[in-house]
Batch of 2 targets.
Target 1
Amino acid sequence: MSQFFAIHPDNPQARLVRQAVDIIRRGGVVAYPTDSAYALGCHIGDKQAMERIRRIRTLDDHHNFTLMCRDLSELGTYARVDNAAYRLIRQKTPGPFTFILEATAEVPKRLLHPKRKTIGLRVPDNAITQALLAELAEPMMSVTLVMPNDDYPLTDPYDIRDTLEHVIELVIDGGFCGLEPTSVVDLTGLRPNVLREGLGDVTNL
């Protein structure tokens, strides 16, 4: 049965954050709030945890996982970013945007789109997520918490616990999140290509 941590959305309790990160480092899957919707996350290097997320979400091999990053300093490690793309990302982060970029060799191959060798990266504007990433000191592998056959993400942490308490290790209650996922912007071409219009404003892209 999963643990359930109520973490303050504005002032995350350091003790609970440390405990949550310890669960992630030990191979646990966590449901946690972001600035758009609740997400499922795990350690970037944990293949078994990633496969468990695939089974929970019934994802195929073509699904792009997202690396949740603390700030832009991690972009250059995991993605190839030219000056124009960097300026655009800097304008839009932190915030509800996922950017599709060409991955570097630092990204495990199992996380990549199998044909395009791309990865999604984002920098969230959420105090709990930022606290987790700061304690973890590396990006966290993540996907939006949308259950199979559902059109929208789960928003209530108590519903998340009832649904997933036997298949994940931790639910973080950070209050209700929205129904709208991030906007997804592909930056691998000559100009930005909006793949999904979500919470982030894409009118000036």
Note: The mean pLDDT is 92.
Target 2
Amino acid sequence: MLNYEHQARVRGFTRIAGVDEAGRGPLAGPVVAAAVILRETTFKNRVDDSKKLTDELRRAVLPEIFQNGDVGIGIIEPETIDQMNILEATLLAMREAIDNLSDSPDYVLVDGLQFPNLVKNKSIQIGIVRGDQKSFSIACASIVAKVTRDNLMIELDRLYPQYGFAKHKGYGTKEHLEAITQHGLSPVHRKTFIHVESQMSPSPF
């Protein structure tokens, strides 16, 4: 999974960032992006696309990512997602994650294709379809984004326990849709999402 990073280093780039997001599809909660520039790529725990790892495996490797890399995180809340749409909110989260690195990258590997000008300088940007399965740096970013967002949804579950956020993380499960029907929308639901609109009832909050 280091082929893309190796190619960049051969070309003289040294600060190679992998960027990925978590939470584009849920009906509630923020979208979170992470950017990771690795100093070391030898890990004790498994690194892979976060979707291929259990929660236990993701949390086991997370400290190694922070120990071995420069990590930036961007978080865009539901209200902003509703204002600007999920694609623009995701790109904003990615830009914030890159901006929150301790130093700007000179080469950026992004999961997916749609990534207009994520950085302020003239660093190279490469979009990789299924990049979280092909790039070690992007895989690390996917893990950071996923665990960060999961933790945020667990916190939201404490505030709004009737929705079960800790279990489904805001995705449109049957349990979640039934809770929306029963309780209406919370302040952290994405009101512009069509699945929410189809279930919308007056919010008690």
Note: The helical segments are 3-10, 55-68, 78-84, 86-99, 136-159, 165-168, 174-183, 194-198.
